[in-house]
Amino acid sequence: EAGASVLLLRACLALLASPIYLLSFLGMWEPFCRKVFFPFVLDKISVIHDKKSKKHKQELFRNLPDFRGPSGELRLLEIGTGGGSNFQFYPPGCKVTCTDINPNFQENLSRNMKKNEHLHYERFLVAAGEDLHQVPSGSVDAVVCTLVLCSVHSVSSTLREVLRVLRPGGAFYFLEHVAAEHSSWRYFWQQVCHPTWKLVFAGCCLTRELWKNLEEAKFSELKIQHINMAMPWMPIEPHIVGYGVK
Asked: Which of 8, 24, 133, 242 could form a disulfide with 223 if both were Cys (CB 3.0 to 4.6 A apart)?
């Protein structure tokens, strides 16, 4: 019964978004989405999400200084930096390496770098989370990833790379939207929106149970909290937040 309703509503949604499906079929949506649409829309959504997540992020990143390396420096790598909305939460003097698979966020990125001159920006790498080969093994104290694991091709490969680049005792920080409780209306709507949402928002998956991937990864210590963030009219309320230690 639910399966049939999901399929019917998915079809209605696909019909509403048919121009995008057509552009995608012609190979024109993906480049436009990556260069223009996604950076623009993400900027608008980020404003809302940043307000809602601010206190969670302050709480999350509070213990970042505890993971300074033996030299007293904190070398931090961010996967999927986007426009740099996390910079404000990093401690002064922190050495930041930014990575993103999409290099089209320059405008917001340079704005946020100017705003956060308390950090040292080491380099910017165009790289996918699954392939950070430009970063030496065991070379960073902390890795940060917020709203990124929803759209990587392989969550387990990304987490393997995270563990590779972290030094022993280093920490991986995350804040991600996840699948809702399976018996809930939220999950029903996530299933309905999933194919169209994934196409429109550059591969973002609504129904990933990311806490399972994190539990399967080889962290020596893992703290995960399930929270709800009120995002009006968006199927991304359920989130997980926390950190894992290598």
From this structure: 242
